[in-house]
Amino acid sequence: xxxxxxxxxxxxxxLVPGVLCAVCFAFPAPAQTAAAPPTQPVAPIHxxxxxxxxxxxxxxxxxxxxxxxxxxxxWFKGQDAYTRAQLAKIPGHDALLARxxxxxxxxxxxxxxxxxxxxRYFYEKMLPSExxxxxxxxxxxxxxxxxxxxxxxxxxxxxxxxxxxxYVPSWDGKMVxxxxxxxxxxxxxxxxxxxxxxxxxxxxxxRARFGGVSWRGDNHSFFYNRMQKLAPxxxxxxxxxxxxxxxxxxxxxxxxxxAVLGVGISPKVEISPLDIPIVFTTVAGRWAxxxxxxxxxxxxxxxxxxxxxxxxxxxxxxxxxxxxxDVTSLTxxxxxxxxxxxxDAPHFKxxxxxxxxxxxxxxxxxxxESGNVIKGLATAQDGLYLQETDGINGVLKYLPVKGGGxxxxxxxxxxxxxxxxxxxxxxxxxxxxxxxAKAPRIYAFDPATGKMEDTKLQPLGPYGDPxxxxxxxxxxxxxxxxMVPLSIAHKRGMKMDGxxxxxxxxxxxxxxxxxxxxxxxxxxxxxxxWVLAMAHPRGGGELGEDWHKGGQKLTKPNTWRDFIACAxxxxxxxxxSAGKLAGSGTSAxxxxxxxxxxxxxxxxxxxxxxxxxxxxVRSEETPNGPPNTPEFGTVKxxxxxxxxxxxxxxxxxxxxxxxxxxxxxxxxxxPRVASWEPGKMAARLEAATGSGKPILLRVDYAGGHGxxxxxxxxxxQLADEWSFLLWQFxxxxxxxxxxxxGK
Length: 743
Prior knowledge:
- The chain is an alpha+beta fold and 743 residues long.
- The protein has a domain at 70-103 and 464-734: Alpha/Beta hydrolase fold, catalytic domain (Rossmann fold), CATH 3.40.50.1820.
- The strands form nine sheets. An eight-stranded mixed β-sheet has the order 30-31-33-32-34-35-36-37, sandwiched between helices. It has a four-stranded antiparallel β-sheet with strand order 3-4-5-6, with no helix packed on it. A four-stranded antiparallel β-sheet has the order 10-11-12-13, with no helix packed on it.
- A hairpin with a 5-residue loop joins β15 (287-294) and β16 (300-306).
- The longest helix has 19 residues, at 70-88.
- The radius of gyration is 25 Å and the shape is globular.
């Protein structure tokens, strides 16, 4: 199960030509007196023209890519100051924030990332008074819990904070390695804690963003992935390349840790500079599995070798499968290796082969493809557990080792299933179940009784089962006739007269599914009779691998056109109207919302572009750009450039178009989407829009891509975004005075 949990983290690495104005403006903005309100600084235009295969592309704000330039820094700070001043004028903002906080703090505790080894449970937990989770441990489900690690105890940059990125217990549960990073940077440093005493060992390992920790059978040493240390003058695009696996023995100097897998280390293992190697060990401690991740490509290459041979020059690594085998995840039970693949099975199937004598050509299909999409798998002493979805609700299935067919496990309520934790040394599994209208519960499945019991690890608050919230799952016809899933949540008995403020969100990349999830803060919106909707466009994984491929590279336009079709459905069916509809996209969802508003600006009153991939043609120039080329393409080929240009929202902004009001957000420490992408998008929209509606840039200088953000940061951003939308919808109570309504 440890392997599957780590793969979930790594596979989540996300984790998206107009006529140019020739006028250049003074920069930076004029100095403000202490009493004067900030004005929105105007970015000067310094066009740079590139020639891509005979196509000339002009970039008016290329200079913004130098974020350390004092003038660029001043522009960002001026934009943020102006944005926050505008938001402060919205009269309903503070009351909305107070309600969001009240709902957020109504949960007695938020419990996440539960793991266990026989007899001992680990989990992250955040109390209402805390802003980030701490790591806890307890002996047995009913044992007394205690704090094992508080990330706040480590020094952090001024005005910032620390957060736990990942943790991995040793096989006996007596040690735990914890990755901690500051300010949403995800730049993790590994700390080692002795569980019984709480003692922390002196050594730490930095540059451990990818983690990949796996303990050996001695419970005193582990493998881990470490990024290279850039030399002075080395390009930032090298940062995520040539990472290596090291072996660390607890209590020794990590600077002397030997590299055991990586580029050029083992002649029997093919690794490119863009690959991320991970080494997993099996429970019995006999085998090491070399798991090679190719950037953000879901399909992996897998090797195996005896654990004790790893690191030796002649380590007998044997390849089990390659990218062409379409394997996306795996787990083990004894010497059996189970592989999840979409080879000739878009909804996925499960193969089994032997670790001692792997043979993919003769691997047994133990779980054939069905109408459901298999999303994950895990093993326990009693068998193989399968996490599936029918496109709307989750399904939990089970293949017992004692023989017999695949069984479907009844669930306490309809929702999405997440395999939380299991261990092949004990029977059963921990399962999280949640839905749009039900708070998450963590259940323990007992195969002896066939029952699911609530572990009570996750306590429920007073809003855990809101009776007035209903959710609908509908299918929407897209531009080419394809039926697209759309989830809609609203208050029971709402009037279908087109008057409800509505926020439509969408993602659509990497084969990632935007599954139903409960958050009590959403009640601050829903309880007013307003609507929240989630589009599931092609590019995501909701309907299998074909759905993913249907919104990738050449077919990427399907992603935003599916999103547009969902917006049209909400209007046509009188949930809302164009004057009350906003769209939202986050990260790679920046492609979705960015191209939706540049292709159909008339559909939306406002939009939220959150840490969005906006300048796809230039994204390859960022540290996280090269690993993302498998998903989006590369400008190093003609077809790759054409695909990236089509999905580049920044380059499709046109002068004089009546764009909706847009709030663009970025975290200054973002390691995934560099702040210059949202910055350039905001600058271009500000200069181009003919609607007179505000374009705002919100910068979180203590944040990153969202991972590791504090509860306070999340609450404040949500209040800012929703207040902005309600202002643009013309909602009563959210309208500043006429003198403050414009720029």
